[in-house]
Amino acid sequence: MDSTEATSYPPVVEDLTVDVAVVGGGIAGLCTAWELVQTGRSVAVLEADRIAAGVTGYTTAKLTALHTLVYSEFGAEAARLYAASQQDAVDHVARTATTLGIECQFERCPAYTYVHSEDMVGQVRDEAAAASEAGLRASLVTETELPFPVAAAVRVEDQAQFHPRRYLLGLADAITARTGVIYERTRVVDLDEGPPHTLTTESGARVRADSVVVATHYPVFDRALLFARLVPQRHLVVAAAIPAAQDPHGTYITPEANTRSVRTAPYTDGQRLLIVTGEMFTPGAGEVTGRYETLTDWTLERFPAAQLRYRWAAQDNSTTDKMPYIGVMHAGADSVYVATGFNGWGMSNGVLAARLLTGSITGDPLPWTDLYDPRRLHPVAEAGPLLKAQSKVAKHFIGDRLRSSHVDSIADIAPGAGAVVRVAGQRCAVFRDDTETLHAVSATCTHLGCLVAFNDAERAWECPCHGSRFSTDGAVIHGPATRPLEPRRLPDQRDERP
């Protein structure tokens, strides 16, 4: 984000009609708009905040078809289609950047999934064999360029890393130079399925379209009940400058130690920016500051010369069968599409989604269209993960309400901290800022009614059920919620909101 200029596209202020409306201005939304304008269709991108500034703006930007350990879990045909579609996305970014002349720090490099434990070597060996059989240039290795030994690793050639925001801002210019328009600060709050379909924005303006693509990371409209099959997860990122000579020349990930992902990016002369990801947790789980400390310690122990520069948190949605949901939103939908559940691999899946959805809209489907169909359900494969996901939601929805309070009283909340407190029979999310001023909002998420919890590192309220996030004054930071948390007045507050 720091290395690119801010955008300033206007909001929608009056009704309009287009061929396709794309809700969401991240990688899936912008790439879809780009593919569609090349067919001559008029396209409107509707972004609630700023394009390429949400989840996409804070990604770790590994562009690869190697997704930890998945190929050995798919059947042979599913694995083949998955590999072909993911590699196609990687190569498509390379072609598009070259065609449009976008300088996005695109670099080819190998991708690795590694383990330390001898107990997992067999699983890695199976993954290497399955990925190779699926068509990737995959092999089993025992040595990498990481500054520590590994027991085994899958290595896949011809993968990549890039600067996604630079790439997407280049696409945005290309979209608006053709038949597309981009609107920012335009939150969509309702969808009336047509024809034509009508989207209503927070300001009351309406956008009518023959086709609608919902690409909001977690769907803001869930006519297919996908929320029951999506699990939100957050993970932390630290970035540090290292000498260029210590570049491990590749992208790396391990499922061990609560996930560790490593890659680098161009930085200053003689340096690379080391990007380390890990410490996965459920939104609202708390103790985020401590998790950052754990990840920082891990990084400095393995890269002693690292000089910390940045830290941030990312958010992903996992599906119950480890396959994204890309396609027609629900069985009764007529030209309403969705792209979600990227399982932590948003770069390749966002590009893949754009190509798949464009093929569906134009009547030229791709070979892997059925593989990602959101209407699929695999009762045997999904039963366990589905029950686990819903039991977690039920635990928060019911269990959080059985606690009388998350702290005993407002007086227990320290400066810079927040907690859920019962006040006059209502659960309030109360934050005390550094000046001792209290900020109180409803503790009930406006999506489906779960109770929020406080993130101490980012000073935000998070919903543990479906991943919505809110600022301390209740404004929506991240969906699927589209409405803010309602303000609450504490007994000693005046009429005005703090």
TrEMBL record:
<dbReference type="InterPro" id="IPR038010">
    <property type="entry name" value="YhfW_C"/>
</dbReference>
<protein>
    <submittedName>
        <fullName>Glycine/D-amino acid oxidase-like deaminating enzyme</fullName>
    </submittedName>
</protein>
<dbReference type="InterPro" id="IPR005805">
    <property type="entry name" value="Rieske_Fe-S_prot_C"/>
</dbReference>
<dbReference type="InterPro" id="IPR036188">
    <property type="entry name" value="FAD/NAD-bd_sf"/>
</dbReference>
<keyword id="KW-0479">Metal-binding</keyword>
<dbReference type="InterPro" id="IPR036922">
    <property type="entry name" value="Rieske_2Fe-2S_sf"/>
</dbReference>
<keyword id="KW-0001">2Fe-2S</keyword>
<dbReference type="Pfam" id="PF01266">
    <property type="entry name" value="DAO"/>
</dbReference>
<dbReference type="GO" id="GO:0051537">
    <property type="term" value="F:2 iron, 2 sulfur cluster binding"/>
</dbReference>
<feature type="region of interest" description="Disordered">
    <location>
        <begin position="476"/>
        <end position="498"/>
    </location>
</feature>
<dbReference type="GO" id="GO:0016020">
    <property type="term" value="C:membrane"/>
</dbReference>
<keyword id="KW-1015">Disulfide bond</keyword>
<dbReference type="GO" id="GO:0046872">
    <property type="term" value="F:metal ion binding"/>
</dbReference>
<dbReference type="InterPro" id="IPR006076">
    <property type="entry name" value="FAD-dep_OxRdtase"/>
</dbReference>
<keyword id="KW-0408">Iron</keyword>
<keyword id="KW-0411">Iron-sulfur</keyword>
<dbReference type="GO" id="GO:0005737">
    <property type="term" value="C:cytoplasm"/>
</dbReference>
<dbReference type="Pfam" id="PF00355">
    <property type="entry name" value="Rieske"/>
</dbReference>
<dbReference type="GO" id="GO:0016705">
    <property type="term" value="F:oxidoreductase activity, acting on paired donors, with incorporation or reduction of molecular oxygen"/>
</dbReference>
<dbReference type="GO" id="GO:0004497">
    <property type="term" value="F:monooxygenase activity"/>
</dbReference>
<dbReference type="InterPro" id="IPR017941">
    <property type="entry name" value="Rieske_2Fe-2S"/>
</dbReference>
<feature type="compositionally biased region" description="Basic and acidic residues">
    <location>
        <begin position="485"/>
        <end position="498"/>
    </location>
</feature>
<feature type="domain" description="Rieske">
    <location>
        <begin position="405"/>
        <end position="498"/>
    </location>
</feature>
